[in-house]
Structures are given as C-alpha cells and as structure tokens.
Amino acid sequence: MELYLDSADLKEIENAFQLGFLAGLTTTPTFMHREGVTDLDAMIVKLSKIVPVLQIEALGDTAEDILKDAERQLALGLDPAKTVFKIPVSLEGVRACKLLRDRGMMVNVHLVYTIQQAYMAMAAGASYICVLAGRMQDQGYDAIKLIGECVEMVNFYGSDAKVMFSSVRNAEHVRNALDLGCHTITVPWKIMKVLTENSFTALGTQQFVEHTRLITVTVGEATNGVNPTVSTDTTLADAIVKMTEYGFGCVTVVNADGSVKGVFTDGDLRRYLSSEGRDVLGKKIGDFEYKMPVSIEADALLDAASALFKKTSVDTILVTEGGKAVGMLDIQDLK
C-alpha cells in the first residue's frame, strides 16, 4: 500500500520526507489557505521540488477548463511524471479525467461517496479513486464498506486504478485500509508519527538499553565524577553544607591518609538531631561511629552494582579505586 503524506505544512513535509520511503504528497487549496499561503503557484512549485510525487487540484467549470488549469500548472515547471491532478468527481470531472489521461497526465478522481461515482472514475481511466473516509463518517455514511467495495471492483475488473483511503482521522483508519487491501493511503503527519508507537515496544526497547548498559558500562564510567568528601575533623554543620552544595544525600568521611572511615547520610543526620538536638551540629564528623560502607570498585560493571543495590537495599554506593573513595553511585545512575 502506497503511503502518502496529507499536508501543506512545510515543516511537517520536510520532517516526513526525511523518512525516505513516502510515495508522495497530497495537498489541497484548503490546506494551503489554512497555512497562510498567498501565492498558490509558488507553493506548488516549491513542493514539487521536495516530494517524489505531488497530487494537486485541477479546477474548472468544464472539462476543458480543468484541462487548461492542469496544463497551466505543468507550464510552471512541474514534471508530468511526478504530478497527479486531483479532480472532484462529476460528469465534467470524469470527462476531464479522460482528456488528461489521453494526454499522458495522471489523475486522482476524488470526493467519491458512492460506488457508482467510483465506477465512473475507473471507466474514465483514473489513476487514483479517492474516498474521504473521515468526512463520510462525519456525515453518517459507511465509508469502510464503500472503500472495500471500490477495492473489490478495481481488482475484479483488472483496472490499473488505485483506490486511495483519505481523510484519515486516526491510526485505526490505517488498519482499516490495510484490512481492505487498499492500494494507497494519505495520512496527516500527526497520525503518521504515532503509527510506530506501542507501549510494549517502548518498554522492550527501554529494557534492551538498560540491560546493554548494565553489561557494557563500568561503575566508574557511570559516576558523574562528583565526590563530596570531608576530613574527620570537619564539623557536622560544615559537612551538611558540603552535602547541600553537591546536592548529595551523603558525604564520604576520609582519614588523614585518604582511606575511608565511613559515609555520613542525611538519614544519620535526622537520627542524631532527634536524639541529641542541635548541639550535635558542633561535633566533629569523625567522632561518630561508622559501619563499613557499601562500596564497589570503579572498574566493576554496572551489573555488579545492580546486584549490590538489590542485596543491600541502599540507594547510594561508595565507588573506590584501590580502597580510596573516588565517587558515589546513585541507584538512578543505573538507568
């Protein structure tokens, strides 16, 4: 099924065609008016240089008028092999379709609401027969049934016409088109962007990224290089200032020789304030008792750190090199 973009927004068009596989662009004077276009011809020429195939309106009261409008636009420099003229279905419209086709131009007969209109478009040699699904449904018609009938008719009679599913309002319309075996669909960018989205896909991708990171990145590479440390003779008040400056919930306490004495956490602070009051702020940080901190060497893989987080139920692990503190690994650093 050919995939077209339905738009007149230049930014959307540039983004969409970076995909590299869109068949072309459908647009309308209504779209261009909505985008504030004041020079229709200049815009058409610009679009023709961006997209593989451009489908634009050819208008007129009679078949001859429609033909003249198509020829006028081709004279702007459009390539007939890359331009499809959209003609609203009517008696003059299908006559114009035949005139254009006899001259080697491609035609999309659109605004089709009945199978009889679709048949007349096919009989006139239309390159595309376009049903506006969303607009039909807005008016209470069974657009999906009609499009299915059009596909069946074209296939049954061996016509070269392609049935186009247009006026796409949601991703389900794209599924409808696929189910019906439509030959072509034209989709707004806001809907096209979500066609690859699925929550399970996102979850699976996230897991792949996280697990790859766990077995390829070392602890040292994952730490941000920030290592708030204080000596044992630092007051608790000054240690709190250091924690605040670095935005950490803990600080590493080191002896004079650089070896680790322990890690003082904001949890420790709350416990000491509760038991000893504000006077505790004047104590030296080295005066407190410390358990051996949970630590890991910088050259270990994050997978080992993940296992250590699960085993110890801590949120932060001390990172060391040769027994000396070089940083802190937060559990969020695993992601």
Question: How does this structure look, described?
Answer:
It contains 15 helices and 14 strands. It is of the alpha/beta class and about 325 residues long. The protein has 2 domains: about 1-195, Alpha-Beta Barrel (TIM Barrel); about 200-335, CBS-domain (Roll). The strands form 3 sheets. The chain has an 8-stranded parallel β-barrel, surrounded by 6 helices. Strands 9-10-11 form a 3-stranded mixed β-sheet. Helix 4 (about 65-75) packs across helix 5, helix 6 runs parallel beside helix 8 and helix 11 packs across helix 15 (about 300-310). The longest helix has 18 residues, at about 200-215. It is rod-shaped. The model has no long low-confidence stretch (mean pLDDT about 95). One of its GO terms (biological process) is carbohydrate metabolic process. Pfam families: CBS, TAL_FSA.
CATH fold description of the largest domain: TIM Barrel
| Number of contiguous helices | 15
What CATH architecture label of the largest domain applies?
Alpha-Beta Barrel
Instruction: Classify the beta-strand content into a percent band.
Output: 15-25%
Quick description:
Helix content is 43%, strand content 21%. The chain is α/β, with parallel strands linked by helices and 335 residues long.
What attributes characterize this protein structure?
335 residues, alpha/beta, TIM Barrel, CBS-domain, eight-stranded parallel β-barrel, three-stranded mixed sheet
